Amino acid sequence: MKYILMMHSTKQGVDTYHAWSPKDAEAHLESLKTIVRDLTESGEFVATQGLAEPAEAKLVHGQKNDLPVTDGIFPESKEFLLGYWIVDVETPEHAYAIAGRISAAPGPGGLPTNMPIEVRRFASPGETQ
Fold first, then answer.
1. Which of 10, 12, 87, 113 sits CB 3.0–4.6 Å from 107 for a disulfide?
2. So what's the pLDDT on residue 126?
3. DSSP-assigned states of every residue in 45-101
């Protein structure tokens, strides 16, 4: 079963990340790279991608005069999708365990960030929502 593991944060959270020391930021990224390497070796890795800064986000809802209707830049309390991982695993519990590893990636001083990771199963073809 394929799952998407989504990392969300607020503008304040992103600003806090930008204030991390280069050493802490590098340790965090290395931890995430190790997770991807482990998932690749086990055959469970499908894809991952970080996203551009929230300042570039726009919410599109419909059209008016053949042009998209957009909202953005969002207020600071708005949550943003920062990036995602797609994994192909046998059980939801295993997807949760991977999300736990991602959430526990080190932050400042090596302490776990405990960043919330949303875990969602991909719907099967023909499955109704």
1. 113
2. 80
3. EEEEEE---GGG--EEEEEETTEEEEE-SPPTT-EEEEEEEEEE-S-HHHHHHHHHH
